[in-house]
Amino acid sequence: MTADNKLERLREIVAELESVAVAFSGGVDSTFLLKVCHDALGDRCLAVTVTSELYPAFEFDDAKRLADEMGVELLTVETSQLDIENFRENPPNRCYYCKKELFGTLLELARERGLKHVVDGANADDTHDFRPGARAASELGVRSPLKEAGLAKDDIRRYSREMGLSTWDKPSFACLASRFPYGTTITADSLDMVAQAEQALRKLGFRQIRVRHHGTVARIELPPEDIARALDLKTRQTILEKVRAAGYRYVTLDLQGYRTGSMNEVL
Questions:
Q1: Which terminal Cβ of the chain has fewer Cβ within 10 Å, N or C?
Q2: Are 198 and 132 found together in one domain?
Q3: Same domain, 194 and 162
């Protein structure tokens, strides 16, 4: 199926849904999905954004701005995944427990608003990684129109650019829990350490960042093309100071570079 056929199939799927609540993070995938849903369904499309300790404030600010630009009603749901013991203890299926509660909340909200479906921004590439959250979505009947239409990340970025969406080249972002090795208990303090360290790197001009949390050690992942700049003497010293200020004792740079789901390599 060509990319054009995939886009047409996506529009058909959305039209068949009739009314939706879109789980909206402000990222590349959910922004594209929200745009297509709003174009097709108008006020029968609602955006729902979750705020929690797992997402830095700039993510919510982006989501609010994007919804405003598209003229879509945005509802905010406040959650605390750290209240879920099975999530907090960080087993390999951690995301299942998070999504089970989150999607359950969204489904209840959708019913209250008279909307027939909850949809998320999972895409065709997500089938190639370990995604226990997808099982929770499937069990609850949450739909993933991008994945159903066969749209991969490159397709979504291409169409986002053609539609004039500012997110077309936005770096990928995953919740901060993805920075922790499985079995490491996730706490509010450790999440704050990660958030502070990554924000410091953003302020230095790095766009795609992961600070993996290994106790007192921060393992920084950057795209390979950014590694040389990070190793510049002055930049390296600044990174060391800023990441230590976030609470880490040791600061390392992963020479393999940034890759999605690196914590899954042990599975």
A1: C
A2: no
A3: no
